[in-house]
Design a protein that fits this description.
The chain has 481 residues and is α/β, with parallel strands linked by helices. The chain has three domains: 8-82 and 223-294 and 430-480, FAD/NAD(P)-binding domain, CATH 3.50.50; 103-216; 296-423. The protein has 15 helices and 19 strands. It has helices spanning 16-27, 65-74, 105-113, 119-142, 152-164, 170-177, 181-188, 207-215, 227-237, 282-285, 325-335, 379-397, 402-405, 414-419, 466-480, and strands spanning 8-12, 31-36, 47-50, 53-56, 82-84, 89-92, 98-101, 218-220, 241-244, 247-252, 258-263, 266-269, 272-275, 299-307, 317-320, 344-347, 363-371, 406-412, 453-455. A hairpin with a 2-residue loop joins β3 (47-50) and β4 (53-56). α2 (65-74) packs across α15 and α6 (170-177) crosses α7 (181-188). The longest helix has 24 residues, at 119-142. Flavin-adenine dinucleotide binds next to α1, β2, β14 and α15.
């Protein structure tokens, strides 16, 4: 279906996917209307506020900063200040050793030689393979839309992936390159950034860990969520209409063409709809039954803590690994039980940003524990004791006297995420499995027979994470409008 500039396009959802789509469409001269169910803009990209402090509630790791910058530029936002993080992330192992992941190859090799004297050669082999895979993956998967593909396409894709050895799991793939088991975790756990089990997620996703090393991790000054008011202001400046309503129905004609969206107070006629919510909710909005059962990503147990004073030795991004990482992953992805001895990620932006707290001598901390999505855990019963266990572990290993120095603390469980509409309480949308990747993931045209219906966002190809969701929005606008 061809669209003309006089078409009205309704974007359902004001997360980063919806806002980016709206801005790019407005730039092209379309009449755009964004409708968001929550009272805030940004979806998962937002702040937690308490006592005059703020800290990012969801995304913290700015991967592919150049992609982010480029798309923001296209949206007319050119003055975002970012700082490169060094180290990128520090891995703290249960035996007390640490490995800082660094963008500088020589510094990275120096870190690794404590674990294996031959690390230099191992790292060189890893980078050489990943460079090839990355170039292939960007050209053949990330930059591709799979709205029309022949039956040969999946076969061709899998044949090439097999040639790269990318059919095994991310973790098994790392074990091919590195001799020390600690490095398998240090180089393999990045599939967790999109809610995937490192022991089963296809090695194609090892590219996340490679992208981190090759392109760095940045920090958006003021916090990642400070992008949201910028996106909203730019959208308003370009004449995008924006309102807070929950869309209850997408109406379509007998000829299968969308014609309006309806909410509790009325309807908005339109020629196209871009849906940017979770996929399991799209079919009911269309008055249809879901065609497929999807698999959710992992959930997150989150603590946000206001701290008296600072911990000057702590890094911005750190993982605190446990003795049995495989067991933690089994509990998250197989048994659906509360982790007994979990690995924990900490984000301590106050290390480089003093603007986040009311008093510049204080600091804020974000703690994320991968936990099962779904409803196998009754969070209301266990969340307090689980939080106490996590704080105790952090006090012992990372932040001495944390509980004494805590000024405020908030927590968020998968039950809260589910209540806000995230699929099965998973944090990252659809899990990155083979059957939910590339042409097998929902596409920019999720129902190709339905004219004027499009989708963007974390659960749509090319996938989750802020820059990738923005890339999906860019691909949609470029390929359809
Ligand atoms: C804890 C956590 C940590 C993360 N860490 C990172 C990270 O470090 N780096 C990174 O890049 N990414 C990270 N992510 C992932 C990133 O946040 C997401 O990929 C991205 O924000 C998804 O954007 P979206 O627009 O697709 O979805 P959302 O942000 O979920 O936005 C969708 C919006 O649509 C609205 N909506 C849905 N249905 C309707 C309806 N019927 N009517 C009106 N509105 C509707 C929803 O209310 C929501 O606001 C993290 C996510 C979480 C939860």
């Amino acid at each position: 279906m061809k669209h003309t500039r006089t078409d009205r396009i309704v974007v359902i959802g004001g997360g980063v996917g919806g806002l980016t789509t709206a801005l790019l469409l407005a730039h092209k001269g379309y009449d755009v209307h964004v409708v968001e169910a929550q009272r805030h803009w940004g979806g998962r990209l937002r702040f937690v506020h308490c006592d005059g402090d703020r800290i990012d509630a969801g995304p913290t790791i700015v991967l592919l900063p150049d992609v982010l910058r480029r798309i923001l530029h296209t949206c007319g936002i050119c003055d975002v200040r970012m700082q490169a993080c060094d180290p990128l992330v520090r891995m703290h192992f249960a035996d007390g050793t640490t490995c800082a992941r660094r963008a500088d190859p020589q510094a990275m090799i120096e870190e690794m030689t404590q674990f294996a004297p031959e690390a230099g050669a191992q790292y060189a082999r890893y980078i050489a393979q990943m460079e090839q895979r990355y170039a292939w993956g960007v050209a053949n998967v990330l930059d591709q839309t799979f709205t029309n593909y022949s039956w040969r396409e999946p076969a061709r894709l899998f044949a090439q992936l097999a040639r790269f050895g990318a059919m095994r799991s991310v973790h098994a793939d790392c074990a091919r390159f590195f001799s020390d088991a600690r490095l398998h975790d240090a180089f393999g756990l990045q599939s967790l950034y999109i809610g995937g089990n490192p022991y089963t997620t296809p090695a194609m996703y090892a590219l996340i860990g490679y992208a981190e090393l090759a392109y760095g991790i940045s920090y958006v000054e003021g916090g990642y969520a400070s992008l949201v008011p910028r996106l909203v202001a730019a959208a308003q400046q370009y004449g995008v209409r924006m309102e807070h309503r929950t869309i209850e129905r997408i109406a379509w004609t007998a000829r299968g063409r969308v014609c309006a969206v309806t909410h509790a107070q009325g309807s908005i006629p339109c020629e196209a709809v871009v849906y940017s919510g979770e996929m399991h909710r799209l079919a009911p909005l269309l008055g249809m039954r879901a065609r497929r059962r999807w698999q959710p990503s992992s959930g997150c147990f989150l603590l946000y803590i206001g701290i008296e004073g600072t911990y000057p030795d702590r890094d911005v991004h750190a993982f605190w690994l446990c003795a049995q990482f495989a067991q933690h992953m089994r509990e998250v992805f197989r048994t659906g039980t509360l982790p007994t001895d979990p690995a924990v990620y900490t984000f301590y932006p106050s290390r480089i940003d003093r603007s986040l707290t009311k008093h510049p001598d204080d600091s804020v901390l974000y703690v994320l524990v991968p936990v099962p999505s779904g409803s196998t855990i009754h969070w209301a019963d266990v969340q307090q004791s689980f939080a106490a266990r996590i704080v105790h572990m952090l006090e012992r290993r990372a932040f001495p006297k944390l509980s004494q120095r805590t000024r405020w603390m908030q927590m968020r469980t998968p039950a809260d995420a589910a209540a806000e509409g995230l699929f099965a309480g998973g944090a990252f949308g659809l899990a990155p499995t083979w059957t939910q990747t590339a042409m097998f993931r929902p596409q920019l045209r999720p129902y190709p027979h339905m004219d004027g219906l499009y989708a963007v966002g974390a659960s749509v190809h090319p996938g989750g994470g802020i820059p990738i969701v923005m890339k999906g929005a860019e691909m949609l606008v470029r390929s359809v409008f």
